[in-house]
Write a sequence for this structure.
């Protein structure tokens, strides 16, 4: 019998394997349970391949999408649908960044204890930070243009407005291929030539790394030959100091500044300003921007500092960057889902760290005010304490893409914005009126 | 929203029922019965605590004599049914004498109390235990932890069963048949009748049966939810299973009788498997079903019961190589038949049980490893030739990439299972039941979805507990026959549960075997109950088991 006692340990070994397997399975269940439960094969929560419970609201309680066993219900107004579809997503969840896809666990109400058991019978609510009326305003203001409008609260990180055009009606017939271009969210996933808006980064680099910048001076003849290459402007800007160079957006001057600052410093500043990183927006990872600052080609470097050459920036990152200028250099992580966390509301959103020093931010801020005064016209923004930079990205087509980025200094409405209009021409001319409308709508509603 | 509350009640009841049974079984420390004393020269009396004892110098013997003249395994002392003792010399170097007569090695001799036994240079006498001492020992055994009183647990199980019926009615509405409801009530009645009747025959330990009744309840609920019409069949299987269990418990009481049964079992099994090979029908890719007069059964399941009995051996047989050969040949016959049927999962179960049992019997690890390697190569060949099995292995580990192909069943199991959360969606509310083999191969997922993770894992813990109990029982075991039987049955349960659960959740390739006591299916249920008798036969707690003859 003694012999058997020793040998019988092999049975204990088998039992231990079974036990460890269960432990492993439990670990997987804890870490992947939400993923498993929300898998499209789960007919408890999917009817005909569509999530059958849960509702998405905007920050003011407007229903944007409701999943039911009879299909996905959208608002009556087609403009509202098209202005918010990039936030909520299409019925099948083909748009990877839509709420129905990103936060389906939240819609279904999965948690480890209850699984998909629905204690309320209609699923959970998700409240987004966007204000749908601002989305509609932005959508309408874009008019016949395609483009992107994004606004966020640079203190709390709440994304107040996010519109992409061209848009589509989620109730229309939709392509089954999730890679179809209509499901692309340019604000989050796109990257485009920043044009003169990048001069903000070059300016920041100049403030940080060029001790001579206060005595900078450049005389623009409109053509600005450098080593036999033209670094042309729209017209002759005459003689500018650093501040005026930004206000008139003089390419010649910024080419010179870029060369003074140098490739290494420009590269470092671009990285510090978060433009080459992906930002995590409640699980959505924005596309990082890409830049090249050659050390052996001053002409290319000049154009890179002007925001042309191979510069590519993501609109959301650009928005966070200008938000950091408004917020004393501190960048705040943007968020789509409304938080019920009171502490978060009081202390502000999650910090992404300091993109800029407080001094640099403050100097840039006053330069952006000067831009508005000198070039964009304060009278074009009645009632708004606006700080901005315009951009006109030359992409080799007949019509240039217009950018308008900035923020307003208003303790109750600390909003930073990015507007990009495809083929819109001069940035402030096309973007200014759009953002004025959107900001006014937001201030009125919130 | 009664379900919202019921889900909690079910989990609390299940935890109460199963933890009570599990803890009672695991805290068992049966004091060995004393059957006599071996007095050696210096007057020390060594208690003889088993029916079968190895005497020798080695550390692993039951009665250890530390003299260089004694061989490592010198001789064995065996108690017969009539209470007389036999001695058998195990080819010891210096031989054994009884009252001066030299024993012929490997031949049995009857000895009487007081006979002078000389092993090498050690003189000893075997003394029968006096009535007084016997009573003292009994008193000592009474101080052991008593088997758990069954009543409170049974009330809890009954409440569980009634609430389960209620939940099924809420969950399924008119889809649940009156017959299914009636069958579940009847199971409750059967449990009470069984316990009250066995108690009147003096049995006092019911933890294992209550665990089995609880698991059978879940099985009934799973069947009622997935295929209400067959619930009555499932009940019939439980009843047949319990009858077979009782029969085997009583049969196993007599070791000689059981030993004599083995040749019959061998031929019966051979007949069943051959019958299956000739008349088998293909279901889910394996020809392991036979249909007789509208009843379908799996002969290979029934052979499991015989397999354990044939694999078990008394101490005497352990020292007899020929006896092991019979088992080896029989095992390979079974494996061959299962391979022909294409029942890969069951073949694995037989194979692993064979490995464990032959290791228990011979203790030969190198042979075990050799066999394992041989089988591994054989397995590779099977994979090479059986595209169906190969396809399942292909999806293994990344079933989500084959979610609508080879990983269909596993991904659904995990998805619906996770959807059940810790508490489940409520019996009858599940959706996994619409997937093929949900109530058999994927039953773990079905239990998770409808009853929740906690209850599903408790069921696995029950199986683990049985195996711990089987190993623990060796300490006080009368004969190696019973302990090998219990460990063999435990191996079957454990490995089968492993294949079932791990296969369904993609820790193993899906092989399509049943979860003991839980999966729907008659033959599997009958076999589970019958195998339980091997555990009962190893339960040496005083007056606990119906399978143990009381000391006379």
């Amino acid at each position: 019998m003694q012999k058997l006692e020793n040998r019988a340990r092999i049975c204990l070994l088998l039992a231990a394997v079974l036990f460890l397997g269960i432990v492993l399975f439990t670990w997987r269940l804890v870490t992947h349970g939400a993923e498993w439960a929300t898998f499209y094969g789960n007919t408890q929560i999917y009817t005909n391949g569509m999530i059958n419970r849960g509702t998405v609201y905007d920050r003011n309680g407007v229903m944007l999408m409701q999943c039911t066993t009879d299909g996905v219900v959208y608002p009556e107004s087609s403009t509202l649908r098209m202005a918010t579809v990039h936030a909520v997503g299409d019925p099948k969840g083909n748009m990877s960044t839509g709420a129905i896809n990103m936060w389906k666990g939240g819609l279904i109400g999965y948690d480890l204890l209850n699984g998909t058991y629905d204690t309320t019978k209609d699923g959970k609510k998700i409240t987004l930070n966007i204000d749908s009326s601002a989305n509609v305003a932005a959508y309408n203001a874009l008019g016949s243009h395609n483009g992107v409008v994004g606004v966020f609260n640079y203190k709390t990180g709440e994304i107040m407005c996010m519109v992409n055009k061209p848009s589509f009606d989620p109730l229309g017939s939709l392509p089954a291929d999730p890679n179809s271009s209509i499901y692309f969210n340019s604000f989050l996933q796109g990257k485009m030539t920043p044009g003169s808006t990048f001069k903000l980064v070059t300016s920041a680099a100049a403030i940080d790394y060029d001790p001579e910048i206060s005595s900078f001076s450049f005389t623009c003849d409109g053509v600005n030959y450098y080593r036999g290459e033209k670094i042309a402007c729209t017209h002759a800007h005459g003689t500018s100091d650093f501040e005026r160079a930004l206000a008139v957006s003089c390419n010649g001057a910024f080419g010179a500044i870029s060369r003074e600052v140098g490739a290494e410093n420009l590269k470092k500043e671009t990285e510090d300003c978060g433009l080459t990183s992906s930002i995590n927006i409640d699980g959505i990872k924005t596309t990082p921007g890409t830049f090249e600052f050659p050390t052996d080609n001053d002409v290319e470097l000049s154009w890179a500092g002007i925001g042309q050459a191979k510069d590519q920036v993501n609109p959301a990152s650009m928005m966070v960057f200008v938000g950091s200028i408004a917020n004393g250099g501190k960048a705040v992580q943007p968020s789509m889902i409304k938080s019920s966390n009171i502490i978060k509301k009081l202390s502000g959103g999650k910090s992404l760290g300091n993109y800029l020093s407080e001094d640099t931010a403050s100097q840039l801020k006053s330069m952006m005010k000067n831009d508005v005064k000198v070039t964009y016209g304060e009278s074009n923004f009645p009632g708004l304490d606006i700080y901005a930079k315009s951009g006109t990205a030359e992409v080799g087509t007949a019509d240039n893409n217009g950018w308008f980025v900035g923020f307003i200094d208003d303790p109750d409405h600390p909003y930073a914005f990015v507007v990009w209009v495809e083929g819109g021409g001069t940035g402030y001319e096309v973007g200014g009126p759009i953002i004025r409308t959107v900001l006014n709508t937001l201030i009125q509603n919130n | 929203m009664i379900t919202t509350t019921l889900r909690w009640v079910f989990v609390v009841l299940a935890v109460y029922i199963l933890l009570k049974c599990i803890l009672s079984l695991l805290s068992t420390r049966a004091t060995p019965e004393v059957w006599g004393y071996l007095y050696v020269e210096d007057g020390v009396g060594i208690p003889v605590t088993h029916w079968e004892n190895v005497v020798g110098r080695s550390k692993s013997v039951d009665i250890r004599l530390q003299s260089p003249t004694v061989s490592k395994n010198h001789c064995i002392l065996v108690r017969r049914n009539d209470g007389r003792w036999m001695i058998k010399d195990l080819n010891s170097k210096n031989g054994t004498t009884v009252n001066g007569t030299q024993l012929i090695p490997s031949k049995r001799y009857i000895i009487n109390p007081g006979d002078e036994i000389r092993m090498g240079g050690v003189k000893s006498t075997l003394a029968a235990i006096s009535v007084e001492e016997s009573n003292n020992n009994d008193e000592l055994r009474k101080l052991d932890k008593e088997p758990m009183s069954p009543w409170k647990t049974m009330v809890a199980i009954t409440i569980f069963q009634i609430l389960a019926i209620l939940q099924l009615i809420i969950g399924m509405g008119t889809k649940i048949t009156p017959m299914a409801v009636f069958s579940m009530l009847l199971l409750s009645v059967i449990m009470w009748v069984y316990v009250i009747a066995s108690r009147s025959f003096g049995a006092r330990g019911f933890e294992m049966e209550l665990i089995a009744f609880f698991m059978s309840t879940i099985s009934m609920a799973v069947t009622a939810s997935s295929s209400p019409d067959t619930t009555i069949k499932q009940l019939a299987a439980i009843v047949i299973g319990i009858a077979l269990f009782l029969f085997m418990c009583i049969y196993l009481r007599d070791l000689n009788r059981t030993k004599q049964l083995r040749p019959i079992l061998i031929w019966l099994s051979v007949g069943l498997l051959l019958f299956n090979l000739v008349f088998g029908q293909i279901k889910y890719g394996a020809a392991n079903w036979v249909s007789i007069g509208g009843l379908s059964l799996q002969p290979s399941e029934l052979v499991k019961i015989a397999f354990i009995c044939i694999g078990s051996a008394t101490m005497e047989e352990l020292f007899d190589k020929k006896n092991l050969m019979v088992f080896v040949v029989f095992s390979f016959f079974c494996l061959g038949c299962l391979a022909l049927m294409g029942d890969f999962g069951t073949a694995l179960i037989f194979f692993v049980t064979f490995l464990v049992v032959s290791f228990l019997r011979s203790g030969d690890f190198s042979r075990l490893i050799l066999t394992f390697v041989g089988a591994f190569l054989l397995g590779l060949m099977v994979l090479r030739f059986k595209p169906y099995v190969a396809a399942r292995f292909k999806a293994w580990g990344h079933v989500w990439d084959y979610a609508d192909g080879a990983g269909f069943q596993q991904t659904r199991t995990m998805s619906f299972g996770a959807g059940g959360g810790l508490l489940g969606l409520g019996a009858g509310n599940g959706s996994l039941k619409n997937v093929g083999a949900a109530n058999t191969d994927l039953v773990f997922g079905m239990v998770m979805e409808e009853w929740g993770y906690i209850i599903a894992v408790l069921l696995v813990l029950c199986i683990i507990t049985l195996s711990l109990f089987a190993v623990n029982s060796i300490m006080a075991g009368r004969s190696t026959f019973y302990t090998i039987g219990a460990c063999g049955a435990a191996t079957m349960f454990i490995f089968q549960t492993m294949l079932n659960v791990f296969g369904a959740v993609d820790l193993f390739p899906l092989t399509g075997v049943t979860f003991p006591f839980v999966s729907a299916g008659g033959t599997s249920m009958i076999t589970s109950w019958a195998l339980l008798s091997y555990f009962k036969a190893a339960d040496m707690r005083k007056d606990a088991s119906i399978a143990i003859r009381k000391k006379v």
Remarks:
- The mean pLDDT of chain B is 88.
- The longest strand of chain B covers residues 122-128.
